[in-house]
Specification:
The chain is of the alpha+beta class and about 110 residues long. It is built from 5 helices and 4 strands. About 35% of the residues lie in helices and about 15% in strands.
Length: about 110
């Protein structure tokens, strides 16, 4: 299969080659009302053979790198932040237990 023209079976090659890989919802009123990043991560794992760690990275730091932003996508002193804290024993529960994991939303900007 393909996702935006990329052979999905080839995605591990891109990660191994150091290519920036990002996941996003592309929420828009014309073709996609999807806003759930856990669902996007789950689809990447199921359909594109991401590992859970790759999906989490692509949904956070990968997105920031794709946008050429070094002030977002990570939690460090001085970084801007819109972030979620999931009440889960591990990041593995985010894509696999979507909708069942309690979440808190935070936003920190200058």
């Amino acid at each position: 299969g393909t996702v935006t023209g990329v052979q999905t079976c080839a995605l591990p090659i891109y990660f191994n080659a150091g290519v920036t890989v990002a996941l996003a919802s592309d929420c828009n009123p014309g073709s996609s009302f999807m806003t759930s990043m856990p669902v996007i991560m789950s689809m990447a794992i199921r359909d594109m053979h991401f590992t859970p760690a790759q999906a989490l990275y692509a949904a956070t730091m990968g997105g920031a790198k794709a946008l050429r932003r070094d002030d977002i996508g990570h939690l460090t002193v001085g970084a801007k932040a819109d972030f979620l804290i999931w009440e889960a024993p591990s990041y593995l529960h985010i894509p696999y237990r979507m909708g069942e994991v309690k979440v808190e939303v935070y936003s920190i900007h200058d």
